[in-house]
Structure formats: C-alpha cells, structure tokens
Amino acid sequence: MEAGGRNTIMRVQSLVQAGLAEIPSQYIQPHENRPIVKKENGVGVMDIPVIDLFGFDLNHRDLVRKAIGEACREWGAFHVTNHGVPIELMNQIRSVGLSFFNDCPFKDKLKYACDPTSAASEGYGSKMLVDNCSVLDWRDYFDHHTLPLSRRNPSRWPNFLPNYREVVGKYSDEMKVLAQKLLGLISESVGLPSSCIEDSVGEFYQNITISYYPPCPQPDLTLGLQSHSDMGAITLLIQDQVEGLQVLKESQWFTVQPLCDAIVVILSDQTEIITNGKYKSAQHRAITNSSRPRLSIATFHDPAKTRKISPAFQLVNESSPLYREVNYEDYVSSWYTKGPEGKRNIDVLRINC
Ligand SMILES: O=C(O)CCC(=O)C(=O)O
C-alpha cells in the first residue's frame, strides 16, 4: 500500500484502521535500527534517574543540583517529580490530545493538516517520504507553535473540544516556567551562573508536539520515532501509561518506564554546545507495540533562528572549545535537510572531528 508519498495525505492511524496485518515496506527499518521488543523489563534493568525537585525549595537546592549534575553527565535525561506543574493540567492535556486522535473524524482532522513541504510546520501530520532511502515513523502528531506569544495562534488548533485551546495555552505557560527553572539548576550544576544557559538561548521558541503511536502489527520491524537528539535547549515530555520512549546509554537502549505524575527532562543539542560537551544531549527514540496505542506530549524549548550558540566562555580556555559556534538557523536547516539520525548534526560541529 502507498503510505505517505510526497503528495499523499496518509496517516498511520488510517493504515491501522484499515486492518493491516503487515506493515507497508516504507515503515520497515534496516536491521541495525530495529528494536529488540522484550515482553517485560527484567528486574534490575536500568532506567533514567527520578529527581525530586521539592517544589524548588531553596533548602533542598544543593541536593537537587547534585542529582541533576549526575543525571546530565550520565544520561542527558531524567524524570522530575514535585515540579510545580499542576497534575490536573497534565491529565487534561493528555485527555484532549487523545481525544483529538480518537474522537475527531479524519476529514475534520485534515482541516488542520500541516504543510508537508515546510519544515516543522504547525498542525496534524506524519513523517513524509523525503527520498527513497528514508524510512517512515509509525506515528501521527499534532504540532503547536506556542511561544513566543507572537507565534501562538490558537485558531490553528483543534476546537472540537471546548477546552482544547485553553488547555494547550495554559500547559505552554507552565512548561516555560519549568524549563526556565530547570535551565537555572542545570547551569548551576555545571558551574555556570544560574541564568547562563537561558541567556545564551534567549527568548524561548516553544513547540508542543502531541504524538500518537497506533498499535503496530509488527513492532519488531519498525520505530515509532527514529533515533535522534533534539535540536534546541531542553525538552519536557510527558507520556501515558504505555511504555515506548527509549534512551541510549553506552550504546544500549533503555526503556523509560512511564511515571504518570513525573515529567521527563531531555537535554538537547544547544545545551550540549553551551556546556562545551560536559553534558550530552540525550539520543532517544520511540518504539511501538502490537496491542495498545501510546500518547506522548513533548514541549521543545529552542533558541530563535537568529541566535548564535557557542560554548560558555567559563567552560573553555583558549585551546579547548569542543564545538564551533553555530547559527541556530543553519543548525535547524541541516537537521531538516539531512534528517536527525542519531546525533549526526551536532557531531559535525565538533572541533577536530
Ligand atoms: O514519544 C516519545 O516518547 C518521544 C517523542 C520525541 O522524542 C519527540 O517528539 O521528539
């Protein structure tokens, strides 16, 4: 079956609803990228750390900073609890997001279809075939442009539920506050002034992507989302109860167990550059399963396109910057033209690489 040629509007959910027993060839990953689908996570299997933020109480700041430093060095990703984001709001965005995929008729969903010819365009989409070599993701998504406010236009978001737009707007505001506080702690934990990473990034360009991974008849052949690191500064992700997110550590993939009230923090490439490689952005991907759909909501915090990013001077001396300065616009354009594929985009900025 044709699935997602340049001009075809095809969504993974529609393929599944058509009752496929086998996935179309465009979704089949080369052997080396296929997931090992385990029945259960064994006892003692490692997972990203869970860090209690104690509501950012100053009495716990040293402890929290230390835990964050370790998590950033070892994983580039960690869960946070007691983060201050209302749990009710997290449940609401999961609920309205799921309802869009489950309850909104396909023809209505298509009113919000994103422009497949433009990178990161807002709206309802699935990965399109860029060339004959690329493999499609087993995922549909809705991408919202939420910050700065000049980019936020809720009339481009679904309104079949009366509270959809309001929930997304409130969630965006809460995530921004959390991202600022976390970047402060991350800066301090690597020995930088609290505002250093945020000052380098400048005003946040924030996007919220709700991803829907339909059940897949052959989960061992495909990926929900190919391996990548995020291009911006910091990503905050929540998921439902269905596991699927995996993080790479020392060449091994680890599944992140869903923790309903926690938020997953994922360090992105510009933070790796600013910290001069002391902290690494997390390479991650999503796998699928044959029985249950999965929903995740990723909130990306990126620099403006005009921003130039380089290692913080406090972390380099004359001879040791590990990354070249980059124009964020060039970084984004390389990410979209070459494709994410692991960490290939940041790797080319490495000096002596
Ligand atoms: O669904 C997930 O858990 C991962 C989502 C993600 O990595 C992304 O949207 O970039």
UniProtKB/TrEMBL annotation:
Q: What organism, scientifically named, is this protein from?
A: Manihot esculenta (Cassava)
Where does the source fall among the domains of life? Eukaryota
Taxonomy, top ranks, is: Eukaryota, Viridiplantae, Streptophyta, Embryophyta, Tracheophyta
Q: What is this protein called?
A: Uncharacterized protein
